[in-house]
């Protein structure tokens, strides 16, 4: 594994800097999410008490451990939960604090059981509303234009749809200003290099590390259908989250719902859904849900079994902001730090498709950074900008 030289290692993104994006997420977004979840389900007195206790803890208290009977207690001990217990949440790194927050939220609503609430996704109402929204109806109807496009134009349209589908992030939209939801443009665009990697003969296995369900997962699935249909991949492994995470991150249940939504749609969307349903049956589309995808660690720390699984792929496509942060290590790198150097450890060529929703950014030219900073529109966190960055073989 290629390590970044220590003298070049930038500070890990923390939560303790007043006015920082990360601190605002803990101060504003997480309490808002607890209130949303609390109102979205007919929880029992014990669950309501647990949610209220978590709200108090994250805002004014000190970090408490998972109960010893938690199924993943050993994993979180390995992920250094003990060092954080008894300290302020704001002392933890941003990635660690957020990951642990979502794990504790699941604990408060008995997601892992045993009992009647086992497996009930606290974010399901929001995910369901989005998946069955008029906006998705329109997006599915718009797929009827694809057969009229050239293969190259279809490919370009599908990359853009998958890229900007990342804005459909229910956690981000909790606090994003309406004005920030307009899209401005790309800060980096390696789309041509992405398609060059997808032109490998014979087509191999492409890994897609998914991000959000619903309005992001559907364009991701339409892109996957294109890759399978036009010889860019013999097989696609779709890496999902094994449990609800970051509000709208896609779980296997969300994949089933999205495939059903597609297959039941009229027109071209329904044909895509039927092909993907068949791809699941033949194994050409293979879902996976490794526990590490909910770990509070950068991808450089991935376990050997996941590394081996990915190493067999010709390319890994990583969707979204959190995956980008974990890919490059969630550090405040100088924006001109080469993306290739920070991703050299990854076991395959990588392509990051991400709308910018947090401070971490790499691989830009100094001129581009100066140009973006001059706009003053919070380009790093507003979701108005996006990137396609590729590190080749
Ligand atoms: O990975 P995604 O869904 O594109 O974005 C995840 C996100 O909403 O959560 C974190 C802040 O809560 C940031 O990484 C980002 O804003």
In short:
The protein has 393 residues and is of the alpha/beta class. Helices cover 45% and strands 9% of the residues. The protein folds into two domains: 21-120, Transcription Elongation Factor S-II, Chain A (Up-down Bundle), CATH 1.20.930; 128-391, Rossmann fold.
Question: Can you put this structure into words, describing what you see?
Answer:
The chain has 17 helices and seven strands. By secondary structure, it is of the alpha/beta class. It folds into two domains: 21-120, Transcription Elongation Factor S-II, Chain A; 128-391, Rossmann fold. The chain has a seven-stranded mixed sheet with strand order 1-7-6-5-2-3-4, with helices on both faces. The protein is globular. The two termini are 15 Å apart. Residues 1-5 have low confidence and may be disordered. The structure holds 1-O-phosphono-beta-D-fructofuranose. 1-O-phosphono-beta-D-fructofuranose is lined by residues 25, 29, 98, 166, 169, 171-172, 211-212, 246, 320-322, 325, 357-358. Residues 28-368 form the Damage-control phosphatase ARMT1-like metal-binding domain. Belongs to the damage-control phosphatase family. Sugar phosphate phosphatase III subfamily. Pfam families: ARMT1-like_dom (PF01937).
């Amino acid at each position: 594994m290629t390590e970044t030289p220590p003298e070049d290692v930038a500070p890990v993104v923390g939560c303790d800097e007043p006015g920082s994006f990360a601190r605002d997420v803990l101060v504003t977004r997480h309490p808002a999410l607890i209130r949303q979840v609390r109102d979205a389900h007919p929880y029992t007195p014990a669950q309501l008490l647990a949610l209220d206790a978590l709200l108090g803890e994250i805002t004014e208290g000190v970090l408490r451990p998972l109960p010893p009977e938690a199924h993943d207690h050993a994993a979180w001990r390995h992920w250094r939960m003990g060092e954080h217990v008894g300290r302020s949440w704001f002392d933890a790194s941003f990635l660690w604090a957020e990951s642990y927050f979502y794990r504790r939220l699941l604990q408060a609503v008995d997601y892992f059981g045993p009992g009647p609430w086992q497996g009930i996704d606290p974010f399901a109402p929001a995910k369901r509303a989005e998946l069955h929204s008029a906006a998705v109806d329109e997006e599915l109807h718009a797929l009827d234009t694809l057969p009229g496009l050239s293969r190259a134009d279809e490919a370009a349209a599908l990359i853009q749809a998958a890229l900007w589908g990342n804005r459909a992030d229910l956690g981000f939209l909790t606090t994003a200003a309406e004005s920030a939801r307009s899209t401005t443009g790309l800060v980096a665009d390696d789309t041509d290099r992405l398609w060059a990697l997808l032109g490998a003969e014979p087509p191999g296995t492409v890994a897609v590390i998914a991000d959000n369900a619903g309005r992001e997962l559907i364009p991701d699935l339409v892109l996957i259908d294109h890759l399978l249909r036009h010889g860019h991949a013999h097989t696609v492994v779709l890496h999902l989250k094994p449990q609800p995470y970051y509000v709208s991150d896609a779980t296997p249940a969300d994949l089933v719902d999205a495939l059903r939504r597609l297959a039941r749609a009229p027109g071209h969307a329904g044909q895509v859904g039927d092909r993907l349903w068949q791809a699941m049956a033949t194994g050409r589309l293979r879902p996976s849900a490794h526990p590490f995808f909910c770990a509070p660690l950068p991808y450089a720390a991935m376990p050997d079994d996941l590394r081996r699984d990915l190493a067999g792929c010709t390319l890994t496509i990583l969707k979204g902001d959190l995956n980008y942060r974990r890919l490059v290590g969630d550090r405040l790198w100088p924006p001109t730090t080469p993306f290739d150097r920070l991703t050299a450890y990854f076991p395959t060529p990588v392509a990051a498709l991400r709308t910018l929703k947090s401070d971490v950014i790499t691989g830009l030219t100094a001129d581009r950074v100066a140009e973006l900073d001059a706009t003053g529109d919070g380009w790093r966190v507003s979701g108005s900008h996006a990137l396609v960055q590729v590190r080749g073989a």
